[in-house]
Specification:
20% helix, 5 strands, alpha+beta, five-stranded antiparallel sheet, globular
């Protein structure tokens, strides 16, 4: 998918509205419109990287910062003690939007099952 047709690129640019949690020059975090947990936020690099397997050495810093932003957002949303950061690379792994992204999920009242599914959690 080309960046001009990417829904996450459009969200990061403000073309499609979202409930924003974080933004800087390179990273955008927003609430998922179809949450799989009581709290479900997506963290994306603004640079269009279709799949994790397509990252380059040039992407190391921004992807590392995505992890830092995930932790900061989790703390901000009061789930810092118990949350998951999930990603998928490729359709067979459950990736449905081909722009590398991380799901921050948490806020459960009970411990979620650890079974691996194509949908979260």
């Amino acid at each position: 998918m080309e960046p001009q047709n990417c829904v996450f690129c459009k969200i990061a640019s403000g073309e499609i509205p979202s409930k924003k949690e974080y933004e800087d020059d390179e990273i955008f975090a927003f609430h998922d419109i179809n949450p799989k947990a009581p709290i479900h936020v997506l963290v994306i690099p603004k640079k269009h990287i279709p799949r994790l397997v397509e990252v380059s050495e040039d992407d190391v810093e921004v992807l590392g910062r995505c992890q830092l932003v995930a932790a900061q957002v989790a703390k901000k949303l009061n789930i810092g003690d118990a949350f998951r950061v999930l990603t998928a690379s490729g359709e067979a792994a459950g990736q449905s939007v081909f722009h590398t992204h991380y799901h921050i999920v948490g806020g459960w009242q009970e411990t979620p099952e650890m079974e691996v599914k194509k949908e979260f959690p």
